[in-house]
Amino acid sequence: MLNDDDRRTIAELERRIHLSDPDFAARMDGTHRDVPFPVVAVLCAALFILVPPAMLLFGWPGLVVVLDLFVAGVVVVLVRRHLRR
């Protein structure tokens, strides 16, 4: 068990950490959640929805355009996530 002096010392250290590096303290407390929006999953759902109408309305060229836009969107998302690290 810790005595009162040790508890005060630990509380002072925690207070200093919170003041000097609040991001680190939030990560250690478990209160900081950085969950990215599932953009790739949304793009896949949009692709699933858009392929049939594009094929019916525009044929193969429409399908190629939709697939190109999908690939470009996924690449943009992945590059932005990689650059944030």
Write down the secondary-structure element order.
HHH
Strand content: under 5%
Structural class, from helix and strand content?
mainly alpha
Radius of gyration: 25 Å
pLDDT < 50 runs, ≥5 residues: none
Termini Cα gap: 41 Å
Please estimate the helix content: over 70%
Average pLDDT works out at: 89
Number of strands: 0
Shape: rod-shaped
The biggest sheet amounts to: none
SS element count, helices: 3
Helices and strands in order:
Layout: H1 4-20, H2 22-29, H3 39-84
Report on the structure:
The chain is mostly helical and about 80 residues long. The protein contains three helices and no strands. It has helices at about 5-20, 20-30, 40-85. The protein is rod-shaped, with a radius of gyration of 25 Å. The two termini are about 40 Å apart. The relative contact order is 0.08.
In short:
The protein is mainly α. The chain is built from three helices and no strands.
Key terms:
85 residues, mainly alpha, 0% strand, 3 helices
